[in-house]
From TrEMBL:
GO terms for biological process: positive regulation of translational elongation; positive regulation of translational termination. eIF-5A seems to be the only eukaryotic protein to have a hypusine residue which is a post-translational modification of a lysine by the addition of a butylamino group. This is Eukaryotic translation initiation factor 5A. GO terms for molecular function: ribosome binding; RNA binding; translation elongation factor activity.
Length: 143
């Protein structure tokens, strides 16, 4: 199960929601009062957590919206190959994985590659997972 239903009225800024099948972080939410002919409306603005694309939607208040189950995990970088695939080490279990490809459009990728090519120490990355998709979202140097 990648999502769970939640009342749209309880969604707040910086919560995660699913719109158009994409996991979004809510950056703006406004509630309108009920009109003469209908429900209160909820206006959502969200940014896709993987692509950075902006989405907007208006939904009736009191309805349900899907909320993605978002996971975060830290890994150490072992290698980055020429195709952009990253070999990662899970410190806790000593498992290695090589199935995450760098997002060439992301600013974090450019900064990460610069640090990797400098070769000064270990790099720890944070991988975000939602709706079956995974991407490196942040990194830090460790001594």
């Amino acid at each position: 199960m990648n999502t769970s239903p939640q009342d749209i009225g309880s969604i707040q800024k910086s919560d995660f929601v699913v719109l158009n099948g994409r996991p979004l972080k809510v950056v703006e939410i406004t509630h309108s009062k009920p009109g003469k002919h209908g429900h209160a409306k909820v206006h959502l603005v969200g940014i896709d957590i993987f692509t950075g694309r902006r989405y907007e939607d208006v939904r009736p208040g009191g309805h349900m919206i899907q909320v993605p189950i978002v996971g975060k995990k830290d890994y150490l970088i072992v290698n980055i190959d020429s195709d952009g695939y990253v070999t990662l080490l899970n410190e806790g279990t000593c498992n290695i994985r090589s199935d995450i490809k760098l997002n060439n459009d992301a600013d974090v990728t450019r900064r990460l590659l610069d640090k990797y090519h400098e070769g000064d120490g270990q790099i720890k990355v944070t991988v975000l997972k939602a709706l079956g998709e995974e991407q490196i979202m942040a990194f830090k140097m460790i001594d």
